[in-house]
Structures are given as structure tokens and as C-alpha cells.
């Protein structure tokens, strides 16, 4: 008995309109932030993906009531019955670590399993812990768990070594519970950070500078329940944009702010793809020859590391050689062997990938090694001649809501099949 696979017959031109779901990387943090108040928080536009289900389980383990109705999630944290996020949940999703900040802020204690590495690198949490320590939290790590204790949290001035998304979020949520003004310097500026800050502000927090490198949090306010709509998923939007480009199609993507994809859309235009922007939508028209470009991943507003794997597929179809430099995660090129099996010609040199263009892709049996690489392999399947069987799609289901149904509605020949391996 194996799990599901995607069966893709390539060569279909995508056409039509698709709406992206709420951003995974925001929804998970909004859910964790709901622990900061005993009141009910109503989250709208929450994607139906397995990572959100895992976060529901984490919250329930912490004593919260969680109920879903369509795209709306209600979280009633009440009074916690436990301050522990256990390993059997954290190992399913390392982003569970973001409950650390809110638990410390609200209860002065937390015990969270240390997330392991994953297929894109070792992913340390040292910056999360150092920042908390500067706020007076006593941290011990034993038996695979982080234990945090802070009978009284204090405001601090914290300078991050790197604008880590997760560390910025954890520290921003902890700071909400610390009386006084906390400064987080070299903070991450991703749209999801801005969404989390907006949610916290609507709960009654005082936060300035979200979207800039310096976050200022006025802590100690009483937080109340609120209602908030999750920001649209820019990585999902990018995936459909590239799907249109690699199939020479024409797709309008709704439910996303194009300003959240500034540099990636510029790169598409540089390659010769037509892109139009509206307030909450973007349209992509592909076809003809594309020119290769170079791409270097960086924290926002740089080129997002989560959009890099999909770009490799498009570069493989362009004229010329493109160099992709990965600056955020240490080993995020592991999927290129799978792409090469489909006819790409990509060579890795340290943290650079040399992508030779002008390739004709051919369908093959391949495995999704992680979430975004899995999406890239699906795109390669759409562009390839013949049939692709994409295995291990549970990685894709972690972060895409029914990717195959949305693609099929755009005219792709793709289906989910039971894989009797
Ligand atoms: C988040 C996103 C992920 C995205 C990434 C970068 C979620 C759930 N995930 O991950 O999709 O690819 O941002 O945009 O939102 N680091 C340390 N020490 C730390 C923290 C991070 O060394 O304490 C390193 C990491 O190993 C990595 C880099 O910093 O090399 C960036 O990580 P970070 O920005 O923290 O990413 P995540 O929050 O884990």
C-alpha cells in the first residue's frame, strides 16, 4: 500500500483564472498568536492544507478549542491545560516552534520539542532562543526539548544576526507580553510578518515598523479576540504564474497582492513573459522564446527561497544559461537530480546552480523531496512531453490546497491516483 501520486500528462497550455488560498506561512503564525488571548479569534481565508491541520492539533494539545467552517477557523484558547508542544507533532511540522513566543508571553513558561532538520537544511533555532534570553527568559534544552521559564518577561533591544522569519515572529509575539518597549533590529520584512503584526494590532497590541528592518513592540497590553483575514499566498501565486509561463499559457491569478511578488515578477518580465498587475490579481501570458536570467535568493524584498525551485524549471526552458544562487538555506538544491531525470541540465557548484536552458523535458517517475521542490516537479510535468508520475505528494499537500484540482481547472491534464507501489 503506497500513498497518492500525481499523474500528469504534459503539453497542455494552461488558460483561465485561479484564486490562491491564504498563505500557509501566515496562517500558521496567526493560529499560534491566537494563544495570546483567552477570547475567541476568528481567522478567515485559512488554507485547507495538512500543515494547518497539524497546527490545529498543536493548539488542541495546548488546551484550545479549534473549529473549522470552510475557510474560517475559530480558535478559543481559554486557559491552557498544557504548555507543551510534543515531539510527535513538532516532527510533523517544524513551524510548530512559533508557539514558544506566545506561550512564554501568556503563561511565562513553555516546553517545546526541538525541531529536527529537514530536506532543505539544518534549520537552527539559536536566534529564537538568544532573543528570548535577552528578554529574561531562562532557557534549558534537555531531552530534545526547549524549556522556557520567565516569571516576568522584560522588554529588550534585540539585534538579529540574520532577518530570520521564524525568530522575528517568535520574538514579536513574546514581546507583546513584556512590559515596555522591545526593539527587534534586522527583523524579517516578509508580507507574512506584516500580516501577523496587523493581527496582533487588531488584538490590541501596539507594534510599529512591521515591514521595515526595525520592529518596535509596546508590550503589556491586554489582548482580546478579533477577526482577521489571512493574506493571500504569494508562493502559490508564483507557482501558477510559472505554470502559465512553462506551458505557454495565459492565467489570471486572484487573491494575491502583486506587490508581494515584486522581484520575481520583474524576473519574469526580464525573461520575456508578459505580466500585468492589478490590485489583488496578476495576469501572466507566456509563449515564444524566453531569455535566461540570474537569480539570488535573499530575505524579502529579495527573491524568495520558496520560489527558487519553480524558477529552475522555467530557466531550463529559456535560451541561455541562468545561475541560481541560494543564500538562505544551505542545501536547497537536492531536488535537481529529479529535475535532471526529466531532461533538465542543472549542475550544482556550492550554493550556485548552473541551469542550462533550451531543454526539452520528458515525463518520468519522480519523487517530491519537499514542499516547493514538489511543486517544481509538478510544473516540470506540465511542461514535459509524455507522462509524469509524481510520488511523495504528501509534501505538496502540506502547503498547497488541492494543487491538482486548481491546475486541472486551468486545463492541465493532472489527477491524483492511488499509488499501489
Ligand atoms: C520561513 C518559512 C519558509 C521560508 C523561510 C525563509 C514558515 C513556516 N516557513 O521559515 O517557507 O523558506 O522562512 O523565507 O514561515 N536560522 C538560524 N538560526 C535561527 C533561525 C534561522 O541559523 O535561529 C537560519 C536557518 O537555518 C535558515 C535561515 O536562517 O538558513 C532562514 O531561516 P528563517 O528565516 O528562520 O526561516 P523559517 O522561519 O524557518
CATH class of the largest domain: Alpha Beta
Low-pLDDT stretches: none
Tell me what the CATH architecture of the largest domain is: Alpha-beta prism
Task: Give the CATH topology of the largest domain.
Answer: UDP-n-acetylglucosamine1-carboxyvinyl-transferase, Chain
3D architecture notes:
By secondary structure, the chain is α/β, with parallel strands linked by helices. It folds into 2 domains: 4-20 and 232-418, Enolpyruvate transferase domain (UDP-n-acetylglucosamine1-carboxyvinyl-transferase, Chain, Alpha-beta prism); 24-229, UDP-n-acetylglucosamine1-carboxyvinyl-transferase, Chain (Alpha-beta prism). Helices cover 31% and strands 26% of the residues. It is built from 14 helices and 24 strands. It has helices at residues 24-33, 50-61, 87-90, 100-107, 126-134, 165-175, 191-202, 234-246, 262-271, 308-317, 336-341, 371-383, 394-397, 403-409, and strands spanning 4-9, 15-19, 40-44, 65-69, 72-76, 84-85, 109-113, 138-142, 145-149, 157-159, 180-185, 206-208, 214-219, 227-229, 250-254, 274-277, 281-285, 295-296, 321-325, 345-349, 352-356, 365-367, 387-391, 413-418. Strands 22-23-1-24 form a 4-stranded mixed sheet. The chain is globular, with a radius of gyration of 21 Å. The N and C termini lie close together (6 Å). Uridine-diphosphate-N-acetylglucosamine (UD1) is lined by residues 25, 28, 95, 121, 123-128, 162, 164-167, 304-306, 328-329.
Amino acid at each position: 500500500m503506497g500513498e497518492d501520486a500525481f499523474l500528469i500528462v504534459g503539453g497542455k497550455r494552461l488558460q483561465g483564472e485561479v484564486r490562491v488560498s491564504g498563505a500557509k506561512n501566515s496562517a500558521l503564525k496567526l493560529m499560534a498568536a491566537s494563544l495570546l488571548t483567552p477570547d475567541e479569534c476568528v481567522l478567515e481565508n485559512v488554507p485547507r492544507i495538512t500543515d494547518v491541520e497539524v497546527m490545529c492539533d498543536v493548539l488542541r494539545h495546548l488546551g484550545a478549542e479549534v473549529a473549522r467552517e470552510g475557510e474560517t477557523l475559530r480558535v478559543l484558547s481559554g486557559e491552557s491545560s498544557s504548555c507543551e508542544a510534543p515531539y510527535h507533532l513538532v516532527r510533523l511540522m517544524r513551524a510548530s516552534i512559533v508557539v514558544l513566543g506566545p506561550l512564554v508571553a501568556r503563561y511565562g513558561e513553555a516546553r517545546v520539542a526541538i525541531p529536527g532538520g529537514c530536506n532543505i537544511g539544518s534549520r537552527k533555532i539559536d536566534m529564537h532562543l538568544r532573543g528570548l534570553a535577552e528578554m529574561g527568559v531562562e532557557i534549558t534544552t534537555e531531552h530534545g526539548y526547549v524549556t522556557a521559564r520567565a516569571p516576568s518577561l522584560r522588554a529588550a533591544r534585540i539585534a538579529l544576526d540574520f532577518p530570520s522569519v521564524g525568530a522575528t515572529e517568535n520574538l514579536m509575539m513574546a514581546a507583546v507580553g513584556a512590559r515596555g518597549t522591545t526593539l527587534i533590529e534586522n527583523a524579517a520584512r516578509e508580507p507574512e510578518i506584516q500580516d501577523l503584526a496587523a493581527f496582533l494590532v487588531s488584538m490590541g497590541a501596539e507594534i510599529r515598523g512591521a515591514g521595515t528592518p526595525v520592529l518596535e513592540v509596546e508590550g503589556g497590553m491586554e489582548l482580546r479576540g478579533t477577526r482577521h483575514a489571512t493574506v493571500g499566498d504569494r508562493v502559490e501565486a508564483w507557482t501558477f504564474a510559472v505554470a502559465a509561463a512553462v506551458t505557454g499559457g495565459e492565467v489570471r491569478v486572484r487573491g494575491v497582492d502583486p506587490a508581494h511578488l515584486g522581484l520575481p515578477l520583474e524576473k519574469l518580465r526580464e525573461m520575456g513573459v508578459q505580466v500585468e498587475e492589478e490590485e489583488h490579481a496578476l495576469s501572466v501570458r507566456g509563449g515564444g522564446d524566453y531569455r535566461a536570467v540570474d537569480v539570488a535568493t535573499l530575505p524579502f524584498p529579495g527573491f524568495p527561497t520558496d520560489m527558487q525551485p519553480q524558477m529552475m524549471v522555467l530557466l531550463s526552458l529559456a535560451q541561455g544559461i541562468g545561475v541560481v544562487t541560494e543564500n538562505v538555506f544551505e542545501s536547497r538544491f537536492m531536488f535537481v537530480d529529479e529535475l535532471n531525470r526529466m531532461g533538465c541540465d542543472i549542475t550544482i557548484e556550492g550554493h550556485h546552480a548552473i541551469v542550462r536552458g533550451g531543454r526539452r523535458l520528458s515525463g518520468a517517475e519522480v519523487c517530491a523531496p519537499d514542499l516547493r521542490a514538489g511543486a517544481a516537479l509538478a510544473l516540470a510535468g506540465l511542461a514535459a512531453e509524455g507522462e509524469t508520475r509524481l510520488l511523495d505528494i504528501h509534501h505538496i499537500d502540506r502547503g498547497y490546497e488541492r494543487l491538482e484540482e486548481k491546475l486541472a481547472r486551468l486545463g492541465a491534464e493532472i489527477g491524483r491516483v492511488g499509488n499501489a507501489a
